[in-house]
């Protein structure tokens, strides 16, 4: 089977978007369910998702492991895999790592833009690396099968996480900084080390991460994918669009500010106006996912490589990452 997987979205979910997932033939999507929410608030978001699974059972269902991708394709639905973009959901309690995994969380970033209890975010001026708690949480995440995501983390913290983790990590939504120097994009050293360790990179379509932003062409994007494949490895890349479809601009304030400041954190955009930039006109929503295939072929990828980038590489990673290892089961 060839799968279609998007490894990061944060949409304002609705029946319309669920239908578009099906029109785009997405078999699996990693969705952000929490940023700065604590454990109880995260559970409330999971309850909200349960209502959607009940209301739209012919469109979506909750995914727990890689076998759900096959079930999704055979039943014409999309498997939804939960993730967190900050460790706030586990609060300061390492025991909640296992609880969250049992509830269906499959990815957790060790930091968002700021310093967390675990690691440093990419907006901090200094990066002291992983904290003592961060090192312990990595071991626990490795044990239970919760993927370490370093998409928003700073350089040293990311390299230390790759080195310490006994399982490959993910950067679910970012691009090379040499292509576009956004704070969130990654250096060649990080990308090379990620690939050598067996980790995986999801390419982002969020305009702040793209050369020329909203005006980035599909050809330019796919040429960047081809160049990155030479650095990371063509089997270690996929899509993580960071699609924030239909989100109101005020959501940006929660994403960037949380509860840590009373001032507006304007983030990566040059304009001092918080909000979501328009997506490139060639990728307005999930229905455009398959259109990447032709452009990837045009820049030199073989058919098997295109299938890998559009989903099969993530499917392999899911199969290797979401369950506890036999040697760790007690």
UniProtKB/TrEMBL annotation:
Organism: SAR324 cluster bacterium
Pfam families, A to Z: Peptidase_M19 (PF01244)
InterPro entries: Metal_Hydrolase, Pept_M19
Molecular function terms, GO-annotated: metallodipeptidase activity
One of the GO biological process terms: proteolysis
Record-given protein name: Peptidase M19
């Amino acid at each position: 089977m060839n799968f279609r997987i998007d490894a990061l979205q944060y949409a304002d979910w609705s029946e319309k978007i669920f239908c578009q997932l099906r029109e785009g033939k997405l078999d699996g999507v990693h969705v952000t369910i929490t940023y700065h929410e604590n454990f109880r608030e995260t559970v409330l978001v999971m309850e909200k998702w349960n209502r959607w699974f009940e209301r739209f059972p012919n469109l979506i269902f909750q995914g727990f492991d890689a076998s759900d991708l096959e079930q999704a394709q055979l039943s014409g639905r999309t498997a939804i895999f939960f993730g967190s973009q900050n460790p706030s959901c586990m609060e300061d309690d390492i025991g909640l790592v296992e609880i969250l995994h049992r509830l269906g969380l499959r990815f957790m970033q060790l930091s968002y833009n700021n310093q967390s209890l675990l690691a440093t975010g990419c907006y901090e001026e200094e990066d002291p690396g992983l904290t003592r708690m961060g090192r312990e949480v990595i071991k626990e995440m490795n044990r239970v099968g919760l993927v370490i995501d370093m998409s928003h983390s700073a350089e040293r913290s990311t390299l230390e996480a790759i080195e310490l983790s006994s399982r490959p990590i993910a950067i679910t939504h970012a691009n090379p900084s040499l292509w576009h120097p956004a704070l969130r994009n990654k250096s060649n050293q990080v990308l090379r080390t990620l690939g050598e360790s067996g980790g995986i990179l999801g390419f982002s379509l969020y305009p702040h991460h793209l050369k020329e932003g909203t005006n980035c062409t599909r050809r330019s994007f796919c040429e960047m994918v081809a160049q990155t494949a030479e650095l990371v490895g063509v089997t270690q890349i996929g899509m993580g669009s960071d699609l924030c479809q239909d989100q109101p601009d005020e959501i940006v304030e929660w994403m960037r500010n949380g509860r840590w400041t009373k001032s507006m954190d304007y983030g990566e955009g040059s304009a001092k106006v918080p909000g979501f930039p328009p997506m490139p006109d060639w990728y307005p929503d999930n229905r455009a996912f398959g259109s990447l295939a032709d452009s990837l072929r045009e820049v030199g990828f073989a058919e098997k490589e295109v299938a890998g980038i559009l989903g099969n590489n993530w499917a392999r990673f899911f199969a290797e990452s979401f369950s506890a290892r036999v040697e760790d089961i007690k």
